[in-house]
Amino acid sequence: METDPADIRGWQRLSGDVTTSGRLEEHDVARLAALGVKQVVNLALDSHPEALADEAGRFGAEGIAYTHIPVPFDAPAEAHFEAFRAAVEAGPKPVHVHCIMNWRVSAFFYRLHRDFQGMPEAEARALMAQQWVPDAADKPEWQAWAEFIAPKAD
């Protein structure tokens, strides 16, 4: 059994069936396949300078399902979250979810854990904080993310 590739930027194992990270490099495709990953979900934009070229084709060649949900860093939306939730909850497992820094991903899983999987808020926040805390008080440009992760009124 392969061990977790902790040298991938922002690598995090959330459970036996869920791993996350920042950007992937060409050699990481085979490494994720060796781990038994059955689906990759990418929240980054293809236009980012660190995006892996032809990511869908590379994972497809390994027999790994691929879902691309391009989330603009300055404009995360509910439609992005719902597509992410559907892919993670209904797609093949194990699943690996990534972006460039593991910031988008950590915020998305924070909401999923807190709002849909019954994880206590403090525990969900602690998992997110291992990668990023989008605090708009410190960085006003992160306001969209602070709003995105805020609890929604019923």
Name of the level-1 CATH class:
Alpha Beta
User: What portion of residues is helical?
Assistant: 25-40%
Q: State the low-pLDDT regions, or none.
A: none
Q: How far do the termini sit from each other?
A: 44 Å
Mean pLDDT: 95
Q: Output the helix-strand order.
A: EEHEHEHEHHH
- Provide the domain count: 1
Q: What Rg is obtained from the alpha carbons, in whole angstroms?
A: 15 Å
CATH fold-level assignment? Protein-Tyrosine Phosphatase, Chain A
Structural class: alpha/beta
Q: What is the number of E strands?
A: 5
CATH H-level name... which superfamily? Protein tyrosine phosphatase superfamily
What does this structure look like?
With 154 residues, this protein is of the alpha/beta class. 37% of the residues lie in helices and 13% in strands. The protein contains 6 helices and 5 strands; from the N terminus they run E-E-H-E-H-E-H-E-H-H-H. A 5-stranded mixed β-sheet has the order 1-2-5-3-4, sandwiched between helices. The mean pLDDT is 95.
